Amino acid sequence: MKVHPVFHTNLLEPYHEDKIKARKPVTPPPILVDAHQEYEVEAIIDSRIHKRSLQYFVHWKGYSVMDRTWEPHANLTNCQDLLKTFHKQHPTKPSLESIRGAHAREGGTVMN
């Protein structure tokens, strides 16, 4: 049985842009690292295996929770301390070590 959200159109309201400029969030510009734009990671929220690849749910510094994204492990080279802290607090969540162990047991190759 599939469940999907259903609601009546009477519950919808038109969008009105906020007229008070002070309430609009200001997002920080990207940081330049080796002539490439990068954004600073504030926290690692979760991890998962997606299409046989390790991904992390990232909260970006200066951005709202609505701007969180799933990022491949390879994109997070400059926040190894946050990754270690996340896995210390959540040892059962998927990690690079758990993927390597699973691939070794299956006889497969390790990617990234």
From TrEMBL:
Answer whether the UniProt record assigns the keyword Magnesium to this protein. no
Q: Note the InterPro entries from the entry.
A: Chromo-like_dom_sf, Chromo/chromo_shadow_dom, Chromo_dom_subgr, Chromo_domain, Heterochromatin_chromo-domain
Annotated ranges, domain Chromo? 39-98
UniProt entry keywords in alphabetical sequence: Nucleus
Q: Can you quote a single GO CC term?
A: nucleus
Q: Which Pfam families match?
A: Chromo
Q: Where in the cell is it found?
A: Nucleus
Q: What name does this protein carry?
A: Chromo domain-containing protein
Query: From which organism does this entry originate?
Result: Parasitella parasitica
**Phylogenetic classification of the source organism:** Eukaryota, Fungi, Fungi incertae sedis, Mucoromycota, Mucoromycotina
**Gene transcribed to yield this protein:** PARPA_02957.1 scaffold 5990
